[in-house]
Amino acid sequence: MDPVAPEADVPPAADTPSRPSRISVSETGTVRQIRKTIVIADGIPHCLNGQVVSFESGASGLVMGFTDKEVQILLLTAGDQIQIGEKVTAGFEPFTVPVGESFVGRVVNALCEPLDGQGPIPEDDRVACFREAPGVLDRQPLTEVLETGIRMIDGSIPIGKGQRELVIGDRMTGKTTIGMDTILNQAGKDIICIYCCIGKLSSALEAVVDVFRRNNTFDYTIIVQALASASQGEQYLAPYTAASLGDYFMERGRDVFIVFDDLSKHAWCYRELSLLLERSPGREAYPGDIFYLHSRLLERAGRLSEKLGGGSQTYFPLVDTIMGDVTGYVPSNVISITDGQVYLNAGLYNEGFLPAIDMGLSVSRIGHKVQCKAMSKLSSKLRLAYIQYKELVRATKLKADISDEGKKRLQRGQIMDWMFIQDKYTPFDTDAFILVLYSLWEGKLDFFTQEQLIQFMAKILPFCVTHDPEMVKRLQDPSWLEDSLKEDLESALDAYLEDAGMKVDEE
Questions:
Q1: Which of 30, 139, 193, 352 has a CB 3.0–4.6 Å from the CB of 221, allowing a cystine?
Q2: Which residues sit opposite 100 in a β-bridge?
Q3: Other Cβ atoms closer than 10 A to 396
Q4: pLDDT at residue 102, rounded to an integer
Q5: How far apart are CA 331 and CA 343, in angstroms?
Q6: C-alpha to C-alpha distance for 475 and 485, rounded to whole angstroms
Q7: What angle in degrees, to the nearest 10, is found between the helix axes of 232-250 and 263-276?
Q8: Angle CA(466)–CA(467)–CA(473) in degrees, nearest 5?
Q9: Could you tell me if 337 and 184 are in contact, meaning their C-beta atoms sit under 8 angstroms apart?
Q10: Closest Cα partner for 50 from 38, 35, 37, 64?
């Protein structure tokens, strides 16, 4: 009896639908060396940077580089069980992270795994972690303002949705507070916020989480954490994971705001990895591609075209300086990538001027064109007037006599000084700031004490809402300079000053 022949490939019948087959291709190599979180393997000749590999012991890794014979792999998960000679498999798949609406309100690690004890997070999709930034034709100009709730920033350094604004300064000068205040101010504004913690102590993160919980910020916020105790792989991946989560919402027409706290520690982590990879150190021992490391991350910010949904991503990267030196390698790199910087001065911080923003060194290259017309008009001369006041203060320290005009400028500058001082975690309303700025330029605040100014800023908007709600609705209207609105403004302000017993007597 003849043996049974194997079945030949028979084409499907005409009435049988053909099914596309999925071919899985993989390569297998061998572990040759282990250097802390870096594994050197051979036998994977066709690997690509950013490709995921898996080890026989169950660990996973990411291809970071290769030579003619060896592959350099960064461990993504615990690799305590990896041994020399172990098999490693590459499946030619890019590294992706799970994303979805269910991540809002959760705390996750760099692999988007939950860390808050609230159970698994269902994913809606997966996004490549190291994807390319949108092209020029996929973007549109920035036309909307992102209100931070910080009077000095919203008045003099306005931020547009889609902008990359660097927050830079020495340690312990309030950089994290700037990011937290901005997140707190997005309540009820349909903006998804992501706080990315890189290389910080667990106590510092717990303080941030506590503030967010007390202010119900988790209704619209995601936390991506890679603490100082986390592996180098997690610290390296964390900002890219946060950007990938932001990409998901941006591509669905949503506005996203991300705080990277901070990129200095991210650069330190990458420097350690590069030394383990035996790459040549350069300036300050950083590898030559440190600029590319952050540029490919920050270039993902922007506003998509209307054809692609019109979503946006706004980034606040935080960077440490040493003794106020902004010419360091990492600070100067990030300054050249971003659209401006908020510089925090340690001297101002030590004097108790909070937030310790140095107006002279801070800038926004988007500028006043994204503000509403009323705010743009009122704040256009605020920065120059304040810098001139600071120069006048320094000049008058050596003079006993000063003109009446100089005294008037010093008096108004002192009002601006008090106006810019703001407690943390207390965002300020834009309509209230418009009323304050109008009152400032009209001279209604020139003779206020600091206590009177604080009371005025806290109560003027609620009073106007009660006194003339229609006028308040028109504050951000482009036609706010019409005589009818100015008359209503004057009437409301005079009524408040009369009611509060603050009627100014210029004599």
A1: 193
A2: none
A3: 15
A4: 96
A5: 11
A6: 8
A7: 130
A8: 75
A9: no
A10: 64
For position 46, what pLDDT does the model report? Answer: 84
Residue 59 has what pLDDT? 87
Question: In whole angstroms, what is the distance from residue 295 CA to residue 290 CA?
Answer: 9
Return d(Cα 115, Cα 101) in angstroms, integer. Answer: 17
**What's the predicted TM-score (pTM) here?**
0.91
Instruction: Classify 346 as helix, strand or coil.
Output: helix
Q: Are 114 and 120 in contact (CB under 8 A)?
A: yes
Distance, in Å, from the CA atom of 64 to the CA atom of 239, rounded to the nearest integer, reads 17
Cα-based distances in Å from 136 to 133, 166, 297: 9, 22, 16
Picking from 506, 387, 497, the residue whose alpha carbon sits closest to that of residue 435 is: 497
- Residue 472, both tokens: 């308040």
Predicted local confidence at residue 205, as pLDDT: 96
Q: How far is CA 210 from CA 117, 204, 213, 310, 504, in A?
A: 16, 10, 5, 33, 43
Token pair, residue 484, equals 């009818």
Q: Are strands 125-128 and 145-146 parallel, antiparallel or unpaired?
A: unpaired
Catalytic entry in 35, 213, 283, 365 = 365
Contact 392, 413 (CB under 8 A): yes
Inter-residue contact 291 to 348 (CB < 8 Å): no
3-state secondary structure (DSSP) of residue 455? helix
- The pair phi, psi for residue 46, each rounded to 5°, is -110, 25
**Phi-psi map region of 58: left, alpha, beta (phi>0 left; psi -120 to 50 alpha):** left
> Which letter does DSSP use for residue 299 in this model?
T
* Residue 462 CB partners (closer than 8 Å, separation 6+): none
Cα distance between the two ends of the chain? 124
Taking alpha carbons only, the member of 33, 26, 77 closest to residue 47 is 26
Question: What 3-state class would DSSP assign to 61?
Answer: strand
User: What's the confidence (pLDDT) of residue 103?
Assistant: 97
Look at the block and give the residue holding tokens 């009660």. Answer: 466
Nearest by Cα to 427 from 223, 188, 171: 188
Q: Do β-strands 221-226 and 191-198 pair in parallel, antiparallel, or remain unpaired?
A: parallel
How many angstroms separate the CA atoms of 210 and 225, rounded?
A: 15
Rounded Cα distance between 317 and 168, Å, is 8
Q: Which residues, given as ranges, of the chain have pLDDT below 70?
A: 1-24, 79, 398-400, 478-483, 503-507
Close Cβ partners of 14 (under 8 Å, ≥ 6 residues apart): none
Is 365 considered catalytic here?
yes
In degrees, to the nearest 5, what angle opens at C-alpha 366 toward C-alphas 360 and 370?
A: 115
H or E segment to which residue 435 belongs: helix 430-441
Cβ neighbours of residue 288 under 8 Å, at least 6 residues apart?
279, 280, 282
